[in-house]
Amino acid sequence: MNIMTSTTSPSMVNRVFIALIAGMVFLSCNSVAQNAPEAEKAAAAKPAEGQAEPDRDVPEGAAILMKCYPDFIKGYKDGKLLMSDGTTLVYDDGREKSFVEKLDDADPEDMFAFTYNRKTRIPEYLQDAGRSRCEALFKKMYGSTEAAVRRNLISVPWFGQKVLFTKVNGAADRLRAVAAELAQHPELSKYFKSEGTFYWRPVRGAKRLSAHSYGMTIDIGGNFKTYWLWKKPGAKETDRNIVYENKMPLEIVEIFEKHGFIWGGRWYHYDTMHFEYRPEILMNNP
Ligand SMILES: [Zn+2]
């Protein structure tokens, strides 16, 4: 059909063209929408190239640990993580544990006992994902003594400061990536001051080591730090009426999380200056 007849006005031609183009766009969007679920299903069913079929007996948490720490965790067999140094580590000791025992005496499985909720502003009671750390696993990766951890530390530039961070598991590289991204937000710079990274010490009032002992943790915040025990000195871990307080902008938190760091501000026992390299917690709580 020739639409350019002598009786057709230019504006009418335009309208016909617009209608034709709109129709084409509608059809193509529609076909994308119909095809997308099929494509997604196919991608999900087929393992990525070069990726072995997952072993059905591997608990989800063990599989996540293998993905996040491939230099150290090579496999899983008969309830144990197979470590690169030839040793093994029991994944689940099978013991029922109280909240405090999950912090003080964690096996790798206990590390996944809590929810890291990125959607709620105020963390739920006793949800402290990441505070449970299997000490044997972390010592195998980052070093079992202060001297051993120190041997893995390198200096990372941090907004005019130099901080020590472990190169193990690529943590120092991830911190550099965080710094590069934060540098694009000079309006937030008053929060960036480092309050400390490596410090070999037990958690206050407990036997277990602080995450700072392993060199994959940084505290920042200048004058904007909040901490559950400062708010309520003498409070017990299981107290129900700990009042949440945070001054750390979520833009900063999201940049850290993008690079594998969890934030202590998402804990019931909040510690809003604390950022710790724990990609397994993020992978388990997408
Ligand atoms: Zn800290």
UniProtKB/TrEMBL annotation:
Coiled coil: none annotated. One of its GO terms (molecular function) is peptidase activity. Residues 205-277 form the Peptidase M15C domain. This is M15 family peptidase. The lineage of its organism: Bacteria, Pseudomonadati, Bacteroidota, Bacteroidia, Bacteroidales.
